[in-house]
């Protein structure tokens, strides 16, 4: 087995703000082989966006990051600023959520896509960059003329495609997609997912897909990991995690996306009481126990570790 | 449950006070302001009003241009009047005019801003043209014309300052009203059947109040300085003692060349201190309302 | 549909035009007591404009909205006051944080409707009951709190309580759970369904989420470019859709069981440039497949099938759909 494209071991991220230390990510470990795809699901406060940003060290100054992140054979946390700049966008790139504020409103879209090429000198000059920009736009399904448009002139779906083109500008090996289809319409979402899938096949990309929409992940990814309160509480093959989840939280999350045609969910919406926990104010023992339908006394004792749950997956629950 | 609401309001006021107390600049500003306000209120106790009259001064046998060493506490001026009396009684006019003119400014500016922003359409267009008209006219010529037409007394000064200062307040408040008007909770109130009056009083005003207060606190020093300017130019009330008038008389009668610092320095420093006090208080209130300002984030 | 029960809300041939942009272009629907109608569509379909017009937050260009028999005449000019001060119709908004005035306590938020409508009586009791029914217990604990002191799910419950305290007959909900975390959506949806089953409430819910419709809707109306293109009972629309647009939508929903994906090309056209003939024809996979008979395929680019008519129990605005489903066509 060759070396994984991305290896994260015991990653912990703590923000230091006026409210004290807030542990957003508390010991996350996973691996992604070359050409594989991993989906990371979770709700607000679970730490998934923090984790995504930590992979390329995009967190605000003063944030404490410990653990190990190995991307394309390089130790990301140990890189010098020069080395980090070299790795960013060429080894791993992020596709952000396509909201207006992800793009510079006063620069044309073409210039923004060309920017990383010129910075990393993968294109020798403006003209060469322009050729590649046009090529990328075409690849993501946008007409070449769009290169001279400003972000506000594009629709949500078009902006998302621009962000994908931007991420591919320097031919990265790893693509991290952070909520790329949230706030997009159903049909546009399907178009973007199909595009990502095509690009992945075409360029042999490794894909890390982060979202709160569990059902989307089953489409797009081979493996699935669910985060809660800063940790991974379940992971395994995507179909196994979605169809027969082992962790009670995953079960509840999956049930929130009912299968159309399934009589069980007709007229009976299912959800959890309470709210996702605030990082920094976690309950004792298993952080999910206040909302868990299967909780009992033993759950308050200690936070469960991930253990094998059958079907090639793992879940952090003492009942597994 | 208005008692509950009042409890929450009191709690919020308490919180604001606690935060204010912890701000050094705010407390210094408040302290200085209180000092001068007390002085203005206690004027009759601190200095005899008769000392402001040149006739009385001569009758008293006061020396001319006496320094503080020769005539305590602050010496005398060119017509033998006690400078201390002018300082103490002058504070009344300066502070009073500053506050009253600000009240007028805020009153006109808020009404125009809220009506213009909320009603919109033609009313907004007309009011905004009116506002711009006032903004464009240079202040000093307008003040001079009004002062000469209306006559030189304290109330007219207040009127002149108010009339020329309200436009910028109006524009500021209108901008805020436009923002609040778009918020979803205004839609919600409308969908509950709220009339325009209800929306303005329950939703627009509370969310604009903070801005109005901050604006007011920073408008007072501007009004005081404006009064000082007008008095210095000879447009002030000739019968009322004010710091601006003191400065004018000092200047006109050669206190600078005589090096009679005790004549112009107290008034000048007094203005500086009061203006600074209001500015510090205003800034502290702004920081409390918008914590991001103080952290520089 | 409940035959024999007259509908609480009737929207007839509603148009809302913004200059050349025809956001709502002839939509008709009705909702009866004790049922949930899900108005489904993508952005640009006009669904939010439609629901705002029904609530009175948007002046329609033409058409009629009737609630409990009382009509709103679209011709009247707007003033600052709402035209529709009917407490029987209440609204639940998409963004619960934005819908609450940050300077009002929860008590004041819920009591506001009562105070506006000058409904005296036991205000405190009614507020407590509304909060309790919305799942915020004990209600007294929430009285003095401000919106920023409670969670997103709780804020939406407060919005619902604020609507329910008016004892409405109809609830208009615009994406009620879209901005809430997935794990808490179920509770809010279950609450809404309970209000329908226990109180005979009628709910018109606007959403892009077909899973939500499956969860709580009795009937579904699908909107495309300002018109309703298909309507019918939920099971029928979601399991056996007739209109090609609905079929394409369902095929790309990740939650649909085994349906071949039909990803449409492009996006919903600009409402200022609505295609001629059937407004869906440029993107219609059925038309592009070449399997339609010439008689029908020729009509699609030129003849407008018209919107689904008011009162149609089950209908789809498409020439390819068998006769009994096509509304507005007198030649077939």
CATH level-four homologous superfamily name of chain B: MetI-like
> What's the shape of chain A?
globular
* pLDDT < 50 stretches of chain B: none
The total count of strands of chain A amounts to 12
Could you say which structural class the secondary elements and strand pairing of chain B correspond to? Answer: mainly alpha
Q: What would you call the structural class of chain A? A: alpha/beta
Describe the structure.
The complex is a heterotrimer of chains A (320), B (297) and C (332). Chain A has helices at 48-55, 81-87, 109-119, 126-139, 156-167, 186-203, 214-220, 238-243, 248-255, and strands at 6-17, 20-32, 37-41, 64-71, 74-75, 92-95, 174-178, 206-211, 223-228, 231-237, 307-310, 313-315. Chain A has 320 residues and is α/β, with parallel strands linked by helices. An 8-stranded mixed β-sheet of chain A has the order 6-7-8-3-9-10-12-11, sandwiched between helices. In chain A, strands 2-1-4-5 form a 4-stranded antiparallel β-sheet, with helices on one face. In chain A, strand 1 and strand 2 (20-32) form a beta hairpin. The longest helix of chain A is centred in the middle third of the chain and has 18 residues, at 186-203. The model of chain A has no long low-confidence stretch (mean pLDDT 89). Chain B is 79% helix and 0% strand. The longest helix of chain B has 37 residues, at 83-119. The mean pLDDT of chain B is 86. Chain C folds into 2 domains: 1-88 and 169-332, Rossmann fold; 97-167, no CATH class. In chain C, the strands form 2 sheets. Chain C has a 7-stranded mixed β-sheet, sandwiched between helices. A 4-stranded antiparallel β-sheet of chain C has the order 2-1-4-5, covered by helices on one side. Classes of the chains: A alpha/beta (320), B mainly alpha (297), C alpha/beta (332). Chains in contact: A-C, B-C. At the A-C interface, helix 6, helix 7 and helix 9 of A face helix 5, helix 6, helix 7, helix 8 and helix 9 of C.
């Amino acid at each position: 087995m060759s070396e994984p494209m991305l290896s994260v071991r015991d990653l912990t991220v703590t923000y230091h703000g006026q409210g004290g230390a807030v542990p957003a990510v508390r010991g996350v470990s996973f691996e992604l082989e070359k050409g594989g795809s991993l989906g990371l699901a979770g709700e607000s406060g679970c730490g998934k966006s923090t984790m995504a940003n930590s992979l390329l060290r995009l967190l605000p100054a003063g944030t404490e990051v410990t653990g190990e992140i190995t991307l394309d054979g390089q130790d990301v946390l140990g890189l010098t600023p020069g080395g980090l700049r070299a790795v960013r966008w060429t080894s791993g790139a992020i596709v952000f959520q396509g909201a207006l504020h992800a793009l510079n409103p006063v620069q044309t879209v073409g210039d923004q896509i060309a920017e990383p090429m010129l910075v990393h000198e993968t294109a020798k000059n403006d003209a060469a960059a322009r050729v590649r920009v046009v090529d990328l736009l075409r690849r993501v399904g946008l007409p070449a003329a769009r290169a001279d448009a400003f972000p506000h002139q594009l629709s949500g779906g078009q902006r998302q495609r621009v962000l994908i083109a931007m991420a591919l500008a320097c031919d990265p090996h790893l693509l991290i997609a952070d909520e790329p289809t949230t706030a997009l319409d159903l049909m546009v979402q399907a178009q973007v997912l199909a595009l990502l899938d095509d690009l992945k096949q075409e360029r042999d990309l490794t894909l890390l897909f982060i979202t709160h929409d569990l059902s989307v992940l089953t489409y797009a990814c081979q493996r699935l990991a669910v985060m809660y309160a800063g940790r991974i509480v379940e992971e395994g093959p995507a179909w196994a995690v979605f169809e027969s989840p082992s962790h009670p939280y995953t079960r509840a999350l999956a049930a929130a996306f009912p299968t159309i045609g399934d009589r069980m969910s007709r007229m009976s919406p299912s959800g959890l009481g309470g709210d996702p926990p605030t990082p920094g104010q976690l309950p004792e023992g298993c952080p999910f126990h206040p909302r868990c339908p299967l909780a009992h006394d033993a759950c308050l004792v200690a936070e469960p570790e991930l253990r094998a749950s059958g079907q090639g997956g793992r879940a952090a629950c003492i009942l597994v | 449950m208005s008692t509950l609401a009042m409890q929450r309001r009191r709690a919020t006021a308490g919180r604001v006070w606690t935060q204010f107390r912890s701000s050094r600049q705010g407390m210094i500003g408040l302290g200085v302001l209180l000092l001068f306000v007390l002085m203005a209120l206690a004027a009759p106790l601190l200095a005899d009003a008769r000392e402001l009259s040149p006739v009385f001064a001569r009758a008293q046998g006061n020396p001319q241009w006496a320094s503080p060493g020769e005539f305590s506490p602050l010496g005398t001026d060119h017509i033998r009047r006690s400078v201390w009396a002018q300082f103490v009684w002058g504070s009344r006019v300066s502070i009073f005019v500053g506050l009253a003119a600000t009240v007028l400014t805020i009153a006109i500016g808020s009404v125009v801003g809220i009506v213009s922003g909320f009603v919109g359409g033609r009313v907004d267009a007309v009011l905004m043209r009116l506002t711009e008209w006032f903004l464009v006219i240079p202040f000093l010529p307008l003040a001079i014309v009004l002062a000469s037409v209306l006559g030189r007394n304290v109330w007219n000064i207040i009127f002149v300052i108010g009339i020329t200062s309200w436009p910028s307040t109006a524009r500021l408040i209108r901008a805020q009203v436009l923002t609040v008007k778009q918020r979803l909770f205004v839609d919600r109130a409308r969908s509950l059947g709220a009339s325009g009056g209800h929306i303005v009083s329950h939703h627009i005003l509370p969310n604009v109040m903070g801005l109005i207060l901050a604006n007011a606190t920073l408008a007072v020093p501007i009004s005081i300085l404006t009064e000082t300017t007008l008095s210095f130019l000879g447009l002030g009330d000739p019968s009322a003692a004010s710091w601006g008038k003191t400065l004018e008389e000092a200047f006109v009668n050669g206190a600078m060349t005589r090096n009679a610092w005790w004549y112009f320095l107290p008034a000048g420093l007094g203005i500086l201190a009061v203006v600074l006090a209001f500015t510090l208080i205003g800034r502290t209130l702004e920081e409390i309302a918008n914590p991001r300002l103080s952290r520089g984030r | 549909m409940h035959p024999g029960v007259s509908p609480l809300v009737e929207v007839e041939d509603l148009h809302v035009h913004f200059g050349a942009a025809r956001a709502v272009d002839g939509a008709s629907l009705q909702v009866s007591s004790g049922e949930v109608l899900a108005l489904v569509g993508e952005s640009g379909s006009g669904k939010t404009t439609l629901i705002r017009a029904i609530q009175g937050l948007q002046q329609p260009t033409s058409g009629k909205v009737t609630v409990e028999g009382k009509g709103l005449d679209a011709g009247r000019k707007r003033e600052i006051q709402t035209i529709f001060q009917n407490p029987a119709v209440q609204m639940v908004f998409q963004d619960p944080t934005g819908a609450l005035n940050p300077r009002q306590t929860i008590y004041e938020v819920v009591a506001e409707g009562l105070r506006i409508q000058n409904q005296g009586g036991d205000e405190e009791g009614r507020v407590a009951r509304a909060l309790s029914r919305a799942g915020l217990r004990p209600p007294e604990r929430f009285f003095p709190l401000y919106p920023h002191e409670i969670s997103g799910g709780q804020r939406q419950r407060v919005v619902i309580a604020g609507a329910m305290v008016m004892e409405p007959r109809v609830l208009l909900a615009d994406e009620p759970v879209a901005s809430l975390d997935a794990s808490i959506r179920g509770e809010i949806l279950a609450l809404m369904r309970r209000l329908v089953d226990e109180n005979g409430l009628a709910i018109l819910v606007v959403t892009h989420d077909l899973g939500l419709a499956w969860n709580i809707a009795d009937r579904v109306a699908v909107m495309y470019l300002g018109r309703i293109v298909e309507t019918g009972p939920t099971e029928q629309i979601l399991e056996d859709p007739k209109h090609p647009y609905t079929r394409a939508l369902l095929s790309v929903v990740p939650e649909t069981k085994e349906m071949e994906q039909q990803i449409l090309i492009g996006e919903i056209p600009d409402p200022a440039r609505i295609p001629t003939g059937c407004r869906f024809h440029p993107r219609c996979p059925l038309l592009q497949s070449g399997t339609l008979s010439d008689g029908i395929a020729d009509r699609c680019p030129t003849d407008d099938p018209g919107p689904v008519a008011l009162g149609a129990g089950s209908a789809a605005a498409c020439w390819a759909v068998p006769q009994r489903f096509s509304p507005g066509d007198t030649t077939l």
